[in-house]
């Protein structure tokens, strides 16, 4: 090992997957302490930020439990499990390497876990959760996860319209329950909202600039929950996507910036908000969809960087390489899958982040 300075070794180890990294801890004292060293953890997470993945929960009709598939552009496909939670759960949100899961068996029980390190935290149980996601239709509570590696903390947001009394019918009072990992407590604030919260996509919540962002079903604007001040506000979308082309739009994150992907029958346009304060959007790419013409009506963009875009169809995970203009199929599910892959696909990246 004397041929390489410690700085070079650390740079190499920061590019290992989590499991091999933890196995190397037995080599020497320096390597043993790296996963808890602040400089190395920051470096590792910065490297991982440039390598997004897609996490897909595959529901197989022949198996009692769903399996989790991680599709990595550089390392291929791997499978893992959330069996360390010892509970049957649904994945509700993903952010910077952490997952927020809700218990299927027990209402009001939520977990935040790092599936790569198999660490998890059981959140304090919510006793009274008379919230519904939509108004006036009763649906699942909206869930958001905000993980900030630089501050070493995370927040979980449950939001929905409050149900009035024993009728179980929602009124127009919109409530947010926020779990703060620093205080280990839930807090609540209430606002009055009209139908603007109707049609929020549960999977595509984006955490940037200390705020959670959801795109409305109409695609006319973005709803923002500022976690520093606990207020809701609106952010504009590009004018070209707002005024009635009939194209589909999706909200993603791209290298720490808010991004919008617009899909038509023949083109995919990628917008990035370059100036968050002034809400200035720039179209950074325009991609022909001729190579995947038969799949266009069923593709959903899930994750991206400046170099590639991950898209999910009914049974496939595709990646588009923006520099080489090349499409590649990364994963294809078998015929016995019961749900489309886009229904349970999440953006994901590995990280060293303690849940406790």
Number of strands: 25
The helix fraction, in percent, is under 10%
CATH superfamily of the largest domain: Kelch-type beta propeller
- Overall form: globular
Number of domains: 2
Q: Could you give the distance between the termini?
A: 34 Å
**What CATH architecture of the largest domain would you give?**
6 Propeller
Calculate Rg over CA atoms. Answer: 21 Å
* Major β-sheet annotation: 5 strands, antiparallel
Strand content: 35-45%
The CATH topology of the largest domain is Neuraminidase
> What is the CATH first-level class name of the largest domain?
Mainly Beta
Overall mean pLDDT: 84
Write the layout of secondary structure elements.
Blueprint lengths: L5 H8 L4 H6 L5 H5 L4 H12 L3 E6 L8 E6 L3 E5 L8 E7 L2 E6 L6 E5 L4 E4 L8 E2 L9 E7 L4 E12 L4 E12 L4 E8 L12 E4 L2 E5 L5 E6 L4 E6 L2 H4 L5 E7 L2 E7 L3 E9 L4 E9 L11 E5 L3 E5 L3 E6 L4 E7 L12 E4 L8
What features would you describe in this structure?
- The protein is mostly beta strands.
- It has two domains: 1-36, no CATH class; 37-348, Kelch-type beta propeller (Neuraminidase, 6 Propeller), CATH 2.120.10.80.
- It has five helices and 25 strands.
- It has helices at residues 6-13, 18-23, 29-33, 38-49, 239-242, and strands at residues 53-58, 67-72, 76-80, 89-95, 98-103, 110-114, 119-122, 131-132, 142-148, 153-164, 169-180, 185-192, 205-208, 211-215, 221-226, 231-236, 248-254, 257-263, 267-275, 280-288, 300-304, 308-312, 316-321, 326-332, 345-348.
- Strands 8, 9, 10, 11 and 12 form a five-stranded antiparallel beta sheet that branches. A four-stranded antiparallel beta sheet has the order 3-2-1-25, with no helix packed on it.
């Amino acid at each position: 090992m004397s041929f390489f300075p410690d700085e070079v070794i650390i740079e190499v180890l920061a590019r290992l997957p989590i499991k091999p990294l933890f196995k190397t801890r037995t080599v020497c004292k320096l390597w043993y302490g790296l996963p808890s060293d602040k400089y190395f953890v920051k470096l590792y997470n910065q490297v991982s930020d440039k390598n997004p993945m897609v996490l897909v929960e595959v529901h197989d009709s022949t198996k009692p439990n769903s399996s989790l598939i991680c599709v990595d552009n550089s390392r291929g496909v791997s499978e893992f499990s959330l069996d360390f939670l010892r509970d049957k759960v649904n994945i509700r949100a993903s952010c910077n390497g952490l997952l927020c899961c809700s218990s299927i068996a027990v209402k009001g029980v939520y977990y935040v876990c790092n599936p790569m390190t198999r660490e998890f935290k059981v959140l304090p149980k919510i006793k009274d959760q008379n919230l519904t996601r939509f108004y006036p239709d009763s649906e699942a509570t909206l869930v958001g996860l905000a993980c900030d590696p630089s501050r070493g903390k995370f927040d979980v947001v449950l939001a929905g319209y409050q149900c009035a009394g024993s009728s179980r019918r929602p009124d127009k009072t919109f409530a947010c329950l926020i779990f703060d990992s620093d205080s280990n407590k839930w807090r609540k604030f209430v606002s009055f909202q009209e139908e603007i919260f109707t049609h929020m996509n549960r999977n595509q919540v984006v955490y940037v600039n200390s705020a959670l962002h959801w795109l409305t079903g109409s695609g006319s604007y973005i709803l923002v929950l500022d976690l520093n001040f606990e207020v809701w506000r609106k952010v504009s979308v590009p004018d070209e996507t707002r005024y009635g082309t009939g194209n589909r739009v999706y909200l993603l994150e791209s290298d720490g910036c808010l991004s919008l992907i617009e899909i038509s029958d023949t083109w995919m346009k990628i917008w990035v908000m370059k100036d968050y304060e002034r809400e200035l959007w720039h179209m950074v790419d325009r991609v022909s969809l001729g190579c995947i013409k038969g799949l266009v009506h069923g593709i959903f963009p899930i994750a991206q960087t400046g170099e590639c875009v991950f898209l999910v169809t009914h049974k496939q995970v595709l990646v588009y390489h923006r520099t080489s203009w090349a499409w590649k199929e990364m994963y294809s599910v078998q015929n016995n899958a019961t749900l489309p892959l886009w229904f349970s696909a999440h953006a994901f990246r590995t990280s060293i982040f303690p849940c406790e």
